[in-house]
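Batch job 17 of 40 flagged for manual review because the log was empty.
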Amino acid sequence: MTDREILEVVLREMTAYGRAWRSNWSGFDGRTLKHQLNRIADWAHKAIGTREESDFIEGTEFEKE
């Protein structure tokens, strides 16, 4: 993956998490959000290092819930 592709995935997933939390603040927990954002960061660091073709869809899946 290129740097741009990795950034596009990160931005897409961060936006999905934001929309999902905004739609349902009742269950908001800052620790959960921190964990979610750390997962995106971990994926991005790995993607940068390996350049593997992979995708991160946890934010998108969370938004579907």
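Reviewer: the log was empty due to a logging misconfiguration, but the result itself is present. The chain has a mean pLDDT of 91. Unflagging and moving on to job 18.
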